[in-house]
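Progress against Task 2.4 (sequence-to-structure conversion) is shown through the following example record, which the project officer requested during the mid-term review.
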Amino acid sequence: MAAKTNLVECMSLVEDPRIERTKAHDLKDILVLSVLAVLCGADGWEDIELFGKIRLSWLRKFIKLKNGVPSHDTISRVFRMIKPDAFQEAFLAWVESLDFGSDGLNVIAIDGKSLRRSHDKKSFKNMLHSVAAWSVANRLVLGCESVDEKSNEITAIPELLKKLELRGAIITTDAMGSQKEIAKQISDDGGDYVLAIKDNHPKLAKAMGEYFDNVHEQGLAEHKVRHHETYDKAHGRTEKRYYYHAPIPDCLREFTESWDGAKSIGQVHSITLRNGKETIETRYYLSSLEVGVKRFASAVRSHWGIENSLHWVLDMTFNEDQSRIRKGHGPDNFALLRRFAINILSLDTSKESTRKKRKRAAWDENYLLNRLAAII
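Structure tokens generated for the chain above:
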């Protein structure tokens, strides 16, 4: 892939699906206009057109728009036609060009999300599901893959991992992604993993449960188990978590020897109190990490954060769950526009919420210019 240095250049990687004689607007212009519009609050095709008309003279500092702003019908038609893989290539090239640090624990959380209103009964089109790779420390989407069935996440994750630099990273997944082939892929590429083990591997989950039951009866020191506790209180909810991390014991070897790189197992026991109601949950993990309970705990907590840091923001700030974009490749490509926008806003490392940053981008031209300085 040829090196690209900014957003406009990266958009040149997207193949134009239109017939030459029908092109009134440059494809790069449409793509950059759409990213900036979504960054500033656009949630649909008509919003993008309106943003373009209001900010036309300002936009011409960055893109030509020689025939003015394309209509929302044109914008919609183009995004329905663009192959998501081609748009994804531009996104990945742009992410690679960003200057972001990697100090501390490099956790990449892999998790799926449904776009609830993306199904189209008339076209017999299923609800779209997207699997994302999230850099926890940098709060950036590193890549994503779309599938039309949640069960297909298992095949999407390996494709997503192929596009990432895994060396030195800790990859976390929920139970859906806890597969032997995925563990091997991560290990082969120089990464580590912390994989949730549930009923998808019933024998291993049962054996882990029995082992940790014995540990708690006989004592942690007897089994070389490390222990760590955390306590959180916020928004009327308190949560106490007990983390246990141990080398794989001999009694579990028959269940773990076929997992490439597996070195340790973990248990997390959570007690949550909300509105007077107590919830108790126990989770199990298989990992390639050497025993180090605080690092294990940090990786597990980091994975849970993808819900608040990415999925919640997509739904509550970008209205992804309410989007009625359904035709062609429109849902896939608009989902990627949102992830472009989230990454641009995440480059602002201030403590403001993403919602406030998005409003600033729409209302404060100096703020928007500062956000664009590093990417255009």
